[in-house]
Every structure is written in C-alpha cells, then in structure tokens.
C-alpha cells in the first residue's frame, strides 16, 4: 500500500511539473505579454521598464526557473485581464466552481448511465466488451469524456 501511495504521489508531482511547463511555454507562444499590458502609445522606455520588471529580459531558461520558483512560493503572477494577483482571482471564483461540481457530476453520471443502458439495449454492448478485462476499466473513459462535454457546456453556457 505504501508503494502504491508513493507511486501516485510521484505521478502527481510529475503531472504538476508537466502542467507548469506547458502553461509556461503556452504563455510564451501567445506573444509578448508587454504588448497586452501597455497601451499602444507607450514609449520604448516604458516597454523596457516593464520587460525588466516582469523579468522577461532574461533567457527562456532563466524565466522558466523564476516562474517555477515563484509558483512554489504561491506567487502565480498577475492576471493580465483583471490586473490583480492571479491567486486572488482564482480564489474569488472558487466558490462558484465548487457550487457547480455536484451538478456536473450528477449530469455526468446520468449521461453515462443513459449511454451505457442505450448501448446495451440496442444489442451492441461494445462498452461492456471493452471493459471485460476488469471491472475498474469499464467506467473511467466514458466519465472522462462526459466530464469534458459538461465542462464545455458549463463554461460556454
């Protein structure tokens, strides 16, 4: 049991590093954040000052190390759109997110059971055949895809 927990913690840590890396590089692919933060009529001095203040004047590796170091200390930066600390923006929206989780789970379970029942009524029990290797493999994929669908509905609706 201890080995299982250690493996899961290691997998979780690896996932966090991977997500942080993807977030960092996607943020750099979208362009220069200074262009988004400053008005169009900003001077070159204003741009240089903001680039230095944000730490964007260093190499990509230096910026990545600073990003990870700040994240480990709980500083997730400033929201470009809200002009507030990102942690504060996240925490202000957390209660609404937690409020819709039970409803999303309920809809996902109802949707999954409807799909499951419907597929077996038509004589094509492919979902059960896929999961025939073990009970724990029958359900995760449909729940995952239902979660993605309902997340899109709640986010776009």
Estimated radius of gyration: 22 Å
Return the string of H and E elements: HHHHHHH
- Note the total helix count: 7
Using the alpha-carbon principal axes, give the shape.
extended
* Distance between the first and last residues' Cα: 42 Å
- Residue stretches low in confidence (pLDDT < 50, at least 5 long) are 127-137
Instruction: Determine the mean pLDDT.
Output: 76
- Level of helix content? over 70%
Structural class: mainly alpha
Most strands sheet: none
Number of domains: 2
β content, as a range? under 5%
β-strand number: 0
Key terms for this structure?
157 residues; mainly alpha; 73% helix; extended
SSE inventory with pairings:
Layout: H1 2-29, H2 33-37, H3 44-54, H4 60-72, H5 86-121, H6 126-130, H7 140-156
């Amino acid at each position: 049991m201890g080995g299982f927990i250690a493996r899961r913690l290691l997998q979780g840590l690896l996932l966090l590093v991977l997500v942080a890396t993807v977030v960092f590089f996607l943020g750099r692919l979208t362009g220069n954040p200074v262009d988004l933060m400053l008005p169009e009529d900003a001077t070159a001095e204003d741009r240089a000052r903001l680039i230095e203040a944000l730490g964007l004047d260093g190499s990509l590796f230096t910026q990545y190390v600073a990003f990870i170091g700040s994240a480990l200390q709980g500083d997730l930066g400033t929201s470009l759109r809200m002009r507030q600390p990102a942690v504060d923006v996240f925490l202000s929206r957390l209660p609404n997110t937690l409020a819709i989780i039970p409803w999303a789970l309920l809809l996902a379970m109802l949707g999954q059971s409807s799909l499951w029942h419907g597929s077996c009524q038509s004589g094509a029990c492919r979902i059960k055949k896929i999961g025939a290797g073990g009970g724990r493999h029958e359900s995760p994929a449909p729940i995952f895809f239902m979660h993605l669908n309902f997340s899109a509905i709640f986010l776009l609706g």
